[in-house]
Amino acid sequence: MDRTSRRAVYAISVAADMAAMQIANLRVYERRGLVSPGRTDGGTRLYSDHDVARLVRIGELLAEGLNLAGIARVLELEAEVGRLCAEVERLQGR
User: For every residue of the chain, which 3-state class applies, written as one string?
Assistant: First the structure.
């Protein structure tokens, strides 16, 4: 699993600043399923270090010219590669 912390602690404004993005973009990325921030009992979005790293990656892919559908696919494939690498390491450790 990714070693980046998944503890949701950052408000949307802080996460947007950390990822150098507009708050409205974070909301769009959430609606499109690219990021899934935690929520407080009152419904306030809270972002983790993992979420912020994912937002930065989204920004990189946007800068390379990908659209949101392409970014979603790249993120899926990157996650699959990560899972497969972890499985290979596990199997080699036996």
Answer: CCCCCCCCCEEHHHHHHHHCCCHHHHHHHHHCCCCCCEECCCCCEEECHHHHHHHHHHHHHHHCCCCHHHHHHHHHHHHHHHHHHHHHHHHHCC
Q: How confident is the model at residue 94 (pLDDT cuts 50, 70, 90)?
A: low
What are the pLDDT digits (tens) for 37-55? 999 999 999 999 999 999 9
Tokens for 29, please give them: 């990325």
DSSP β-bridge partners for residue 46? 11, 38
Task: Assess contact for 41 and 89: CB atoms under 8 A.
Answer: no
Q: What's the rounded Cα separation, in Å, for the pair 6 and 69?
A: 24
Does 4 score more than 70 pLDDT?
no
Q: How far apart are CA 82 and CA 24, in angstroms?
A: 29
